[in-house]
Amino acid sequence: MGTGFFGKVLWVNLTEENFKEELLTGDIYRQYLGGYGLGVKLIYENMPANIDPLSANSVFGFFPGLLTGTAAPFSGRYMVAGKSPLTRTWGDSNSGGTFGPEIKRCGYDAIMIKGVANTPKYISIIEDQKKILDASEIWGLDIIETESKMKEKHGKFIKVAGIGQAGEKLSYLSGIANDKGRIAARAGLGAILGSKKLKALVLKGNKKISIHNRENFLELVKIYNESGTNGEPNKLIRSILQNVPRLAKTIRRFRIKFAGPPKMIREIYKSFGTSVANTLSAETNDSPIKNWTGIGMYDFPFKKSKNLSAIEIQKYKIREYGCFSCPVQCGGILKVPEIKLDETLLPEYETCCSFGALLLNHDLFSIFEINDLCNRAAIDTISTGATIAFAMECFENGILTEEDTDGLKLTWGNSKAIVEMVKKIINREGIGDVLADGSRIASEKIGKQSAEYSITSLGSEIAMHNPRVFPSLAFTYNYDPTPGRHTAASIDFVDIGPINKFQKGFKLPKGWRKSEKKKQIGQMLDTSIHQVINSAGLCMFSTLFGPYPFIDLINNFAGWNVSVDELIKIGVRIQTLRQAFNLREGIDIVGNKLPGRVTGHPPDKRGPTKGISVEYKDFYKGYCGEMGWNPENGYPLKETLKDLDLEFVIKDLY
Ligand code: SF4
């Protein structure tokens, strides 16, 4: 009987061109699980504060989740983590596909990178042979070309993750991509690999994961997967669900919540993926419109948003696509002959919104083209779209002119100019060089009150969901250790899925929607469960699809007897250490403030979010109390640190 994990981390020193293995004890996994939980422990201890993220001393890692590589449903994800070049805070980002499991098959629970190569390199770990190799023939290629070249050289069964042109050019918007363009996109972590002159990891493993009780584990997986297909919606319900994107106006008019039984949600995700939200969110004002100044039903009405509807997108789908061990497969592969794309990934809602509603662009072909460009270059679509929105508002107000934009008319909805601008940002050409590190840095270069149009939190462009629709998003956009994310735990956002049903014994306090105090407790619990889901390598959508045998799976995997209470404590520990990372960096967490237009200051005078302003500062204080942190400054209390076995943090914060 095994322990599930390998107990081994591989360290790669690019300066010294060597590899070292570090052995970890079982208690580390029980305290941090894996993924970015293990990541924050290793990076906190191995990288001192105030290191330039693009320097040789910057430590970076690839982390599969605890369950990644097993048959556990939705567990195929890996995380990358380090200090964000974009926000100078803790940075992590995750991606699905098939790369994460390969790290495990190589026999490692993490691959850590430090130092800097003198010329472009890639790391290959192929059936126990570890090498640092010359990357001159792939440097300059996009990620799909890189993957193809590496397969020609090392065989078709290898898995590749690496940077495209954006990371090579040290863009703070760049990410790390695998499986032909799936990106761990946020926080600008691709620039760290670029600064280390590390193009890619090329992996092919031969190790088996030794699950503690394999029989029970596989039985749990079987029961879960079969339960998902039992009682699928009948033909009538299915045909209604297939038309949900067309019902956007009705949903807005009757204020219908984005919620429903897990089986329906599963059917919708399977059919459309996140693009189902394209019309619904635009119509209900969940989508930010015109750089957060517009109102969907008036400025980007259904007659425009329907061009980007999931139903339109489906017309180009040639096959389903999804991550390793996922029973839902929410992605898709498209063929778009009109713009000569033979095979491209289905664009997610965030991409459709950041290059659609946010820029008043309803040209679907431009969205397909941009999605393909960004995936290949491995650049974050949220931040890139939002940075172009910033530039458009500068253009509208005469702060940028055609002279500055190399002749591009950056007017709202000008899809041709948007596509050209994306290319310029990827290649750092002309104005693209000014914009390639995001809107906050661009505004510092441009000056002239342009900062007003940079809609960021600590420098990270804010994601494509409106806190006036899901109020606690303001709290996470502002305060999560990875600011500006919709994927951080936000208790109102889980309203779209039944989190209470996810793990037996895990419940938000009854009546949390009506009581501020209960909501703060609920936010602490939601934050905690979110950390453990991520650190186990589960997709965040796993909570949407009904009861999941989470604790039983990890206990059978590792031979533990973890309870719900212990699980919550693990989540609090991980979030507390991410918080401590930022405090040690000197980040002014409590002083951070979102732009007024994100929170409704002043409120809209009409439309679905009329009169709504969101306050979040007092809520944070209550949440800090629940986390065992000082409500005045967000510092974890000494007693909390001791209780969480984080004593090593005390000397840094006190
Ligand atoms: S639901 Fe979608 S994103 Fe999540 S694991 Fe499945 S295919 Fe991947």
Give the CA-based shape: globular
Counting DSSP H or I runs of 4 or more residues, the number of helices is 29
Query: What proportion of the residues is helical, as a percent range?
Result: 40-55%
Judging by the overall fold, what is the CATH architecture of the largest domain?
Orthogonal Bundle
Which ligands appear in the coordinates?
iron/sulfur cluster
First-to-last CA distance: 43 Å
| SSE-based structural type | alpha+beta
Instruction: Assign the CATH topology of the largest domain.
Output: Aldehyde Ferredoxin Oxidoreductase Protein, subunit A, domain 2
What is the average of the pLDDT values? 95
Rg, Å, rounded: 23 Å
Give the strand order, joined by hyphens, for the main sheet: 2-1-6-3-4-5
How many domains make up the 3D coordinates? 3
* Beta strands, count: 17
Question: What's the CATH first level of the largest domain?
Answer: Mainly Alpha
The percentage of residues in β strands lies in 5-15%
**The CATH fourth-level homologous superfamily of the largest domain:** Aldehyde Ferredoxin Oxidoreductase Protein, subunit A, domain 2
Strand count, sense and barrel status of the largest sheet are: 6 strands, mixed
- Uncertain stretches: none
Walk me through the structure:
With 654 residues, the protein is α+β, with helices and mostly antiparallel strands. Helix content is 40%, strand content 13%. It is built from 29 helices and 17 strands. A six-stranded mixed sheet has the order 2-1-6-3-4-5. Strands 8-7-12-9-10-11 form a six-stranded mixed sheet. Helix 2 crosses helix 23 (516-536), helix 7 packs antiparallel against helix 24 and helix 16 runs parallel beside helix 18. The chain is globular and about 60 Å long. It binds iron/sulfur cluster. Residues 74, 96, 322-323, 326, 328-331, 539, 541 line the site of iron/sulfur cluster (SF4).
